Amino acid sequence: MSTQSSAKKIINQRKVGNNVWLGYGGEGAAKPSATRNEAFKFEVLETEEAVGQAMLDELIAYSKQKAGDIVIILLGGRGAQAMYKIINKLSETGEIDALLARLHVFTQDALAPMRMNNGLSFVRDFERLLGDKFFEKIKSFTPMNTDTGDLEGELIKYLEKLESLGGIDIFFLGLGPEAEAASHLAYIKPNSGAKFGDIAGVIPISRSILEHHINKFKVGGSRISETDETECRDATHILTLGPAAILGAKKIVQSIVDASTAPAKRASFKRLIETELSENENELEKQLDENPGLWIRLHPNVRSLILPDVLSESSKFKV
Known about the structure:
This protein is of the alpha/beta class and 319 residues long. It has one domain (39-309): 3-Layer(aba) Sandwich (Rossmann fold), CATH 3.40.50. It has helices spanning 48-65, 81-91, 97-100, 122-130, 132-137, 151-164, 207-219, 226-233, 243-248, 264-274, 281-290; strands spanning 3-5, 10-16, 19-24, 43-44, 70-73, 103-106, 109-112, 140-142, 170-173, 176-177, 183-184, 198-204, 237-241, 251-256, 302-306. A hairpin with a 2-residue loop joins β2 and β3 (19-24). α1 crosses α2. The radius of gyration is 18 Å and the shape is globular. Mean pLDDT is 90; it is low at 1-7 and 313-319.
């Protein structure tokens, strides 16, 4: 086991098979604080634009409650595109300049190794969707560096900056479909061994992740060259924030808007909200590893926003 100094704590490396997880020692390990089997609450909004506006409203409301800087984690793919389009337009005016000037913006996951300007990188997609004015006006932007031969070292630098700013205020999350109606948050894959204290990880890529990633970028309208796609398919690892980052965020805003193009999300969402979480810690750990989407159920401050087409007639939904 190796250690590196961070701004306040020690980052420990933990290997599970070919997966590498990084965590803070001692008091840094995240603990669940939500009522374990309380019904998972979510809101059904009629349009993707309404979801985007609701997400932005959460950020604005949070900014009125907290003084000083705000740390947010951007969501890649389709889930937050409507919010980004609204922010893009507002960034061209002075209407939200005071808010933008307080934002420290981070990405939550990435495929690696890959050029930072690859059309299939989240960085390039965020630039396209949020616009130049947004990035000129925010306080800082920190992506995960994927154009490096030292993925772990660069990820630790990213975590050091995140920690130095006081941690995450708002974590914007989606829900990725997996086999057998499981799901992933960020890119925490099923059976990758993630635990409560893991703040981030470097895990081997899978064919399903590659296909899901490329498809959601194409559906979202990204400009992708043949060279970009070839390089993406050669990626070997995923960098991702882990359970400790999710549980340590002050607030989570989840959006699921693309069940029409990713229909497997319906079964994944159904399993997410209907699974009975075990009161036994060892059994709970197994449940979370088999279905990482369940981590969101342990957070006490979540607003989950979905479109009607996410719902399945056979589900026992709690709205």
